[in-house]
Amino acid sequence: MKEKLKKLQEEAIQLIEESVTPETLNDVRIKYLGKKGELTAVLKGMKDVAKEERPKVGQLVNESREIIEHALDYAKTEMEKARRAEQMKKEVIDVTLPSKKNMIGHRHPNTIALEEVERIFVGMGYEVVEGPEVEYDLYNFEKLNIPADHPAKDEQDTFFINPEIVLRTQTSPVQARVMEQGKLPIRMIAPGRVFRSDEVDATHSPSFHQIEGLVVDKKVSFADLKGTLEVFAKELFGEETKTKFRPHHFQFTEPSAEVDVSCFKCGGEGCRFCKGTGWIEILGCGMVHPRVLEMCNIDPNEYSGFAFGVGLERIALLKYEIDDMRLLYENDIRFLKQF
């Protein structure tokens, strides 16, 4: 029995010395010290040992167990030390190196300008409404008093999916959809992407953004429109900003006007930014055409309204004094991180 225990002990020590991972060490532990291990089997065979020899055999088994356990613990400790040393070697930190900068993104200048415009109009009681970018010709043109083959369509040459469906040229179709619902009064702005068949240059793009506003209620007048846009201009460009309305023609408003603001760069004195005029054009507006109200099932004898539209990119270009619209779309980090 003594020889058998010595042989088991030598075999276990050899296997422990050959182990290279904690998993193989655990396998040795189970093989020799587990419930069904070699030493346990020896203890179960004690019934075949003479009664007077049993204490000696039991002592030998316990001594072998202690030797094997000690060898296992020592091997495990050495493995831990080696693993830790290797980890420390890989994770060494050179404190003389410059730290890595945490690159945090931020909003695009278009988004900043849009949120500012929305803040102004929401503060005046307006609702922000969105609509589809792929639109029916009916809403993009017909319901805005631009019938088929009308010359006004030439100014908004767009991308047709088929004769009845287009990529919208303006966000005015959202206004027509809201008016159709008949929930009056209406105070809304409709921001979104629009499309026109334009060549790309410093001031044009086939895809850009508009913000259009609409108010429909009883006894709405041109004076309400002027007052609203004056407040908007002062909030956006500064309290000293003045507005000027010039007669114009839009097919869906009558009367219509273009709106200029006094140059916030030179205070109206005349400079390169305003091309020496002291004024900068920012948007178009007018009273909603009675025909448009009728086509949207609103009685023009009882209700009236005004509408306006401004290019979001134009607001961003003016507010941040950017001279080329293409910079907004090129995703040049050197440009965008200035905002």
From TrEMBL:
Sites where the protein binds Mg(2+)? 254
Cofactor comment: Binds 2 magnesium ions per tetramer.
Residues of the signal sequence? Answer: none
EC class, as a word, reads ligase
**Which GO MF terms does the UniProt record name?**
ligase activity
Cofactor(s) needed, names only, are: Mg(2+)
Any Pfam family the entry gives: Phe_tRNA-synt_N
Q: What positions does the domain Aminoacyl-transfer RNA synthetases class-II family profile occupy?
A: 117-330
Q: Which reaction does it catalyse?
A: tRNA(Phe) + L-phenylalanine + ATP = L-phenylalanyl-tRNA(Phe) + AMP + diphosphate + H(+)
Q: Where in the cell is it found?
A: Cytoplasm
**Principal location listed in the UniProt entry:** cytoplasm
The catalytic activity of this protein is classed by the Enzyme Commission as 6.1.1.20
Stated family: Belongs to the class-II aminoacyl-tRNA synthetase family. Phe-tRNA synthetase alpha subunit type 1 subfamily.
Under the subunit heading, UniProt states: Tetramer of two alpha and two beta subunits.
Which HAMAP family has this protein been placed in?
Phe_tRNA_synth_alpha1
Q: What is this protein called?
A: Phenylalanine--tRNA ligase alpha subunit
Organism annotation: Aequitasia blattaphilus
Q: Organism classification, top ranks?
A: Bacteria, Bacillati, Bacillota, Clostridia, Lachnospirales
